[in-house]
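Inverse folding, one chain.
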């Protein structure tokens, strides 16, 4: 599997910024690995840090828009049947739908930092017909810091970019906890606002 990932990344690397964006759009490889490899390319001087972040943001956002449109036009039955081909399974949809229904549209930002939920959260947003502009803004605002973090870690790892999961753990866990706390605070604020009205 590691050789397969390495082969794909080498092919994408030859495309430069477009390769980084494509790697995130097709989501055959986890975004963390693609971004870490982009960081490695930055360390090698093959692409710039700013360009890598922009490519990562574009690719990551388009990938989520694609999932959003599937939810918008295909709905849950379509995703339960064909979601496995884009690595989204029924349990992912169940969790994401629960989060979206419970915490509202603001979870589109915070859920991007929480494993399992982060990719599937676009599905209930599409099914609920969340305004596309609002969805895109929340998504971009979350994808930018995520891209910066993993590109930076990839720069630090250099040739050992494939060890990104181990290196990222001390960073991702606090971010995940903070995202859950922010989500809960958002929920409390929403409930308080509704009661005030």
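Residues assigned per position:
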């Amino acid at each position: 599997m590691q050789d397969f990932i390495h082969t794909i990344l080498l092919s994408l690397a030859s495309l430069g910024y477009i390769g980084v964006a494509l790697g995130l759009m097709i989501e055959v490889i986890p975004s963390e690995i693609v971004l870490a490899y982009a960081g490695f390319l930055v360390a090698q001087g093959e692409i710039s840090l700013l360009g890598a972040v922009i490519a990562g943001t574009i690719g990551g956002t388009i990938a989520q828009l694609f999932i959003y449109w599937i939810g918008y036009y295909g709905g849950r039955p379509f995703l339960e049947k064909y979601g496995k081909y884009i690595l989204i399974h029924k349990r992912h949809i169940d969790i994401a739908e629960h989060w979206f229904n419970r915490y509202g549209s603001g979870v589109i930002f915070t859920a991007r930092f929480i494993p399992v939920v982060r990719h599937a959260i676009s599905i209930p947003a599409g099914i609920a017909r969340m305004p596309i502009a609002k969805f895109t803004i929340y998504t971009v605002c979350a994808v930018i810091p995520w891209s910066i973090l993993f590109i930076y870690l990839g720069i630090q790892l250099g040739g050992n970019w494939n060890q990104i999961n181990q290196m990222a753990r001390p960073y991702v866990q606090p971010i995940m906890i903070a995202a859950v706390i922010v989500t809960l605070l958002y929920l409390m604020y929403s409930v308080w606002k509704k009661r005030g009205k």
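The chain has one domain: 2-196. The chain has a mean pLDDT of 77.
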